[in-house]
Amino acid sequence: MWSCGPLNGTGRREDQLLCQHTHLVLPAFTLLYLAVGVPVGLCYNALLVLANLQDQGSMTMPDVYFVNMAVAGLVLSALAPAHLLGPGASGWALWGFSSEAHVTLLVLFNVCSLVTMYSTALLSLDYYIERALPRTYMSSVYNSRHVCGFVWGGALLTSFSSLLFYICSHVAARIVECAKMQHPEAADAIMVLIGYLVPGLAVLYALALIARIRKEDTPLDQDSGRLDPSVHRLLVATVCTQFGLWTPHYLTLLGHTCLALWGGAVAGQHPGLLLFAKDLSRCLAFSSSAVTPLLYRCINKSFPGKLRRLLRKLPCGRRGCSADQAGAQQVLA
């Protein structure tokens, strides 16, 4: 578990007191997420993807982006045990693996974080377009699917530059090309800029436009083809959840970059606080994969119906099938 061993030689009484008060809190929160959050994330993200893909004719523009986030959530839930219990944990790794495996897991984590943040930002912008210009097909399901494909491709390309810095930080200086790139702080700075600041500004801009257009009542508000009003609540809840849970992670990356530029003097004075913030922010980031599908399940009115149609298509025996479906529907209700 997360122990005070790495801090014994620091001589900082504040760090020792912090460690004594928090050395049980963080492992308890992490194990709670691994025991509850990971199964919930895997289950609900898989249900969200299957329920929408089996009934693609009823999918709307927000459904496409939530399916995209659910796919990223599945990958994050699968990576969570390796990240939270592996050598990436500050002082309580249960196993170790090679640097190549560590870099691979880190790049996959960065790709999923980029997909999640940009899907949230594009959902906000497309929702504004749908409110301002309905029936123009600029924010249609067809276009949203292609946009999500570009999001995954862009996330892979963006992570490639970070991959070079991470690889060079683990490779000896015998490689000439890597001699001047052994700085993982540069990869962190790229992730903060592209993965947080850009989608954050896009979301703020979209929410400002949405707030302005909601104050204006127009005849288009009575259009039967407009999105369900619950989509606005789902959008606001998703934006607040995603940015609330991912902001500590990106602030930690920003702090790590700033401390590296300052020579690490401050980091040497408070190692316990920095390690605790790093582990806690990582755990909060992973928990977003379980919270988002729960929000979709609770707020989206069409999701229960899609689940019932999915259960009807599941293979079952000729006898007792209707009874089993009725029981499953009661559990879902």
UniProtKB/TrEMBL annotation:
Ranges where the G-protein coupled receptors family 1 profile domain occurs: 44-296
Membrane topology, record value: Multi-pass membrane protein
Keywords of this entry: Cell membrane, G-protein coupled receptor, Membrane, Receptor, Transducer, Transmembrane, Transmembrane helix
PROSITE patterns found in the cross-reference section: G_PROTEIN_RECEP_F1_2
Gene3D superfamilies registered for this protein in UniProt: Rhodopsin 7-helix transmembrane proteins
Molecular-function GO terms, alphabetical: G protein-coupled receptor activity
GO CC list: plasma membrane
Keyword ATP-binding on entry: no
SUPFAM superfamilies listed in its UniProt record: Family A G protein-coupled receptor-like
Entry-linked CDD domains: 7tmA_GPR146 (cd14990)
Transmembrane domains' residue ranges: 31-53, 65-85, 105-129, 150-173, 193-211
Compartment annotation: Cell membrane
Protein's UniProt name: G protein-coupled receptor 146
Natural source organism: Pipistrellus kuhlii (Kuhl's pipistrelle)
